[in-house]
Every structure is written in structure tokens, then in C-alpha cells.
Amino acid sequence: MSTRALATVVAVVLVVALTLGAGALSLRRARTPSEYYVASRAISPATNAAAVSGEYLSAASFLGIAGLVLSRGATSLWYPVGWTAGYLLLLLFVAAPLRRSRAYTLPDFAELRLGSQAARTTASTMVVVVALLYLVPQFREAGLTLRILTGAPTWVGAAVVAAVALVNVTVGGMRSITLAQALQYWLKLAALCLPLAFLLVHRTGGSQVVVERLRDPHWLEPVHGGQGLYATYSLVVALFLGTMGLPHVAVRFYTNRDGRAARRTTVVVLVLLSVFYVLPPVYGALARAYLPETPTPGTGAADAAILTLPGHVVGATLGDVLVAVLAAGAFAAFLSTSSGLVLSIAGVVGQDVIGRRLPTVPAFQVAGVLVAAGALALTLLTSGLAVAQAVELAFAVAASTLCPLLLLGIWWRGLTSPGAVAGMTVGGVLSTAAVLTVTTGAVPRGGLGVVVTQPALLTVPVAFATMVVVSLLTRGAPPPHVARIMVRLHTPEAVALDREGFRARGADD
Amino acid sequence: MSAEPPRRVSRVTVTAPPTHRRRRTTITSEIDAQTQLGEVYVRSLVRAQLRLALVVCAVLGVTVGLLPVLFVVAPALGEVHLLGVTLPWLVLGAGCYPVLIALAAWYVRRAERNERAFVELLGAHHAPGRQP
Predict the structure, then answer these.
(1) Which residues constitute the domain of residue A335?
(2) What is the DSSP letter of A358?
(3) Would the pLDDT of A490 be above 80?
């Protein structure tokens, strides 16, 4: 076994141990449904913000952005900006009302607001679709990382991540993964900062700086004209609006103490993400300058290039150790995001599919096993497909389905259940069709191809319009519960008002 | 036992039944009973919060949101170097984030102010004799 493989294995084992250890620390306290789902809503904004950021910064953020900057250049800088700005929009329109709704999951919110089983089922379906689109690339990327650095078969990395996520989620639930995810934010930040410091200071490797490749005008250009402007805006819309519809992000807001804490958490999240997102583009640019060749965009090669960058620049044992540090950060990203996603899908499956037959907590645990095993199987089955873009497409699907449900549900009394179901269905079918086209590699050439790879600028307005038009067509007498729900969503908790009328399934508080 | 001496009292006609004195006096009870008055108060809060969110959103739109158009319309910006980096790289790589954080902090201050005003409005009617 080479030094690099050994160092990587040690780093990955340490990260796994840290994740499980943090979960075990809070193990004895997760007993009730509300602790499993929302950690009994007793987590401070600072911890919660680190946990939100830790959960959110996925493989795409840690390796993907740097790899894209390396291969495509400045057009990729919109990703970190969009992923951060998504939290600003979430803060403006969703954070406090979502917390005040006192629902556990997005389907809970749909049922609460619309009082309809059909709306709940549609929202559940979209949650599972979005989360799987996001989860499979995490597993895939973990497999690739481990294969590149240690030579292990790709299923090993995926299985490790799936197993750890499963243990953390089924044993401890939300309380257990909150601490682990808060730690993982700081771990990821350190894992990017440390090698970067060496790369900038200690350049003793054999590689020569290829300044010419940093002067390439196409690489430097942030927006390519014509179709590029459409593609950029479509990406911006997907990222800005998709964040609020990500199920593993939404569930995090239920763990705040109250609406005010939910807002303050979001501001801290913006700060933490901003600090983090400055770093990956620097890696991309350094890799562009130091690596002998530019990998093809959209393949695992670009992400792998980032992992091995310290080996090229610093060289020798120190280089191998720095590679292992990056691998540790990457695994922290896979583990935290996967845990959050498995938790959010298990929450939905546990409530809506199994919950009718079993008590809440066992249903949740059985659902966790099914979800982790199912996603792992899906990862192995789709190994021939281009899932690299699935994460950004997951944002487009979330922006076209769950985002309009949240925005119109919170701010417009006129939203009806048929309207919400129609809007989510139309947005979901259109954006999912785009996903399938891209992952199977059947993207047509020319303008239509640009639309298919970046569908949000069309599918999001269509979904909103469908929701509004069908709601207006099916408008009857306003249901009496809507006024009560508006009170519940928007009034501060300090006022003693009647907010009853809905309890999340399995709620005990 | 009071032993009030019987007095001659001139009879007056009671013109309103005493139940009418049980008027809803607090806004919270108006809201709970979903009266039109209660609705007005809740709607005013929701409108104020939505207006604030849309204003902040609009500021985001004309700052970060217009950057793609700006970069296409004024490609000369790509020639400007600051701190050894071209301007678009500096703006997208680092410059956007302080704007996002500032907008978020501004929004939270204003949203909490709206809510405080709502609480005070309700509190003032709730306990008219006990001003803080």
C-alpha cells in the first residue's frame, strides 16, 4: 500500500469515527419522535447554523466547484454564489414561517396548509425524487474518491458512506446528526484551508506554473454570450430558488427554537457559507496553473484532479498527507450530506408509507434502512450514467416543485390543493424529463440542448403559473382553516394566539 | 348581610341587555375569533413582511441579479485587474458574499422590527392600564 493510500485510509477512518462518535455522544437522549425528527427543537442558532452549513456543503461544493473552475473557468463561479444566495431567499420568504408552521417535513407543511392528502402525497413524491437525485451523486463521488486515492473498488466508498449515514440516522435521529454535522462544517473548512496554505507557501513540487492557461480568455469569461446568458440565468434561478425546496435543508429549520431563531440561524449560515465558498475557486485556479493537463468537464476526472493537486505541487510525503487531509474533508462532505438526505427521505417514507403499520420511531428506523439500501442499489445500477450533473438538476427540480408550494403556500391565501398538486406535477414532470435526458446522455444539440441541461428558467415560471391559474379556477369559499394558518405562520410566538388545528404525525409537543 | 333601608328609587328602563357589555376588547381575541377586525391586523403584518421581503429581493435582483447582463454588455470589465485578479473573478469569487450577508442582516432587523410593532400593538390593547 502506498503512503498516499495509507494516509487516505487513516483520514477516512478518523472522519467516520468522529461522525459516529459525535452521534454516540447524544445517543442516550434520542427517544421520542420529536427528537428523531427535529431534535426536540432545542438547538442554539450557532450550532444549528454550523449543522445547516455542514449538511449543505456536499461533494459538489467541496470538490465539484473546484473541478468545474479548473475545467470550465469563470462560468462555474455562479455555483457558489447561487448556493449562498439561495439561503438569502430562504431567509426572506420561508425561514420563520416554516419554523412557525410546526411541521416536521415538507409533506407535513403541504398537509397543514392545504388540508389535503393528495397535496401531501405529491409533495412526498417530490421530496423523494429531489433527495435521491442529490443522494446518488454523493455515494458515487465517495466511491470515485476512494478508488482514485487507494485503488479500492467504487462500491467500497459508496457502501461506507451509506452505512455510516444509516447508523447515524437510525440510531440517533436528528439530535445525533446535528452535532456531527456542526463538527463536519469546521472539518471541511479546515480540510480546505490547511492544504491551501501549504500550496500557496510551500511550492517545491516538480510542476511548472503554466501562466498561459490562466490567460485563456474563454476560461476567464464569466458569461458566454448568446445562449450562455440563458444558461447563466437559468442556473441562477435554479440555485436561488432550489435551495429552499431541498428537503434536507427544510427539515433543518424545524429544529430552531422559534421563528426568530430560524432567521438568525440563516444569517449565520450565510456567513459560514461565504467563508467556505471563497476557497474552492482558488483550488480550481491553482489546479489550472499547476496540473499538466486540463480534464474534460463533467467527468469525475476534474474532481479527482483537485484531490491529487497537493501531490503535484508539494510532492513527497507532505503532499500525500495533504491529499489525505483533502480526502478527509471530502468524506466529511459525503457523510454529512448523505446523513441529512437519508434522514429527510426516511422521515417522509416513515410517515407516509410505513407509519400506518408501525409506531413512529420503529417506522423511521425501518425507513432509514430501506432508503440507504435503495439509494446504494440505485448508485450501483446507474454507474453507467452521467450523474455528475444530477446535483444541479436536483436544484432545478426543487425550484420547479417544492419552491412554488412553499412560496405560494406561505404568502398567498388563494392557493388551493388542486392548484398545488397541478403545479408540482407539471413542474416535476418537465424538470424530471430534463434530468432523465441529461443523465442518459440523450441531450440534443443546439438551443434545445441548452434548455434541457438548464431547464429552470422555463420550468419554474410554468410551475408557478400552473399553481396560480388552477388555484384561481378551483377557488371556492376560502376554507376557514387558512386564516388560522396565516396567523400561525406569520405571527411571532410572543403573542398568545390560537395556533391549533394541525399536529405533525407522531408529534408529542 | 347588608341591611340597606328600603329606598324609593325612581325606576329607569334598561335599554340594553347587560350581555352587550361583554364586547371583545383585545385584538388577540379578535384574531382568535377570526373577526374582520382580527383579519385586518394579521393581514397588515403579513403585507408588511411580504413588502419587506420583496424590497430586499429587488435589491438582490439589481445587484447580483444584473451581473450576468453587465458582464455581457461590458466585456471590458474583464480587462480590469484588481489585486492581481480580473474584476469578474473578484466580484463572483468574493465580492458578492458581503452583499448577501448585508442584505440578510438588514432584512432580519427590519422583520424583527415589524414583529415588535405587531406585538406592541396587541399588547397595548391587551392591558390598557399597564403600560411598560
Answers:
(1) 3-384
(2) S
(3) yes
Q: Residue B85 domain-assigned?
A: yes
Residue B13 forms part of a structural domain: no
The answer to whether A91 contacts B104, with C-beta atoms less than 8 Å apart, is yes
Q: How confident is the model at residue B50 (pLDDT cuts 50, 70, 90)?
A: very high
Number of domains in chain A: 1
CB contact under 8 A, A278 and B93: yes
Output the DSSP codes for A255-284.
TSSSHHHHHHHHHHHHHHHHHHHTHHHHHH
Which B-chain residues 37-66 have CB contacts (< 8 A) with chain A? 39, 42, 45-46, 49-50, 53, 56-57, 60, 64-65
The amino acid that residue A185 corresponds to is Y
| Structural domain contains residue B39 | yes
CA B32 to chain A, closest CA, distance in angstroms equals 6
Q: Which amino acid is at A403?
A: C
- The whole-angstrom distance between A272's CA and the closest CA on chain B is 10
Global confidence as pTM: 0.86
A295 in a domain, yes or no? yes
- Determine contact, residues A490/B45, Cβ cutoff 8 Å: yes
| CB-closest option in A81, A91, A281 to B64 | A81
Q: Please say if the pLDDT value at position A308 is more than 70.
A: yes
Q: What percent of chain A has pLDDT over 90?
A: 23
Does A404 reside within a domain? no
- Cβ distance B96 to A487 less than 8 Å, yes or no, reads no
Sequential DSSP letters for A108-151: HHHHHHH--HHHHHHHHHHHHHHHHHHHHHHHHHHHHHHHHHH-
Contact B111 A495 (CB under 8 A): no
Chain A neighbors of B119, CB-CB under 8 A: 492, 494-495
pLDDT band at A400 (very low <50, low <70, confident <90, very high): very high
- Give tens-digit pLDDT for A189-232: 999 888 888 887 765 444 556 666 777 777 777 777 677 888 89
Give the number of domains in chain B. Answer: 1
- Which positions in chain B touch A243 (Cβ < 8 Å)? none
Residue A390: inside a domain: no
ipTM at complex level: 0.88
Residue B103 placed within a domain = yes
Question: Is residue A12, in this structure, part of any structural domain at all?
Answer: yes
Q: Which residue is closest to A77 within chain B, CA to CA?
A: B92
- The Cα A94–Cα A250 span in angstroms is 9
Element (H, E) at B85: strand B85-86
Residue B60 and residue A96: Cβ atoms within 8 Å?
A: no
What CATH number is given to the structural domain containing A324? 1.20.1730.10
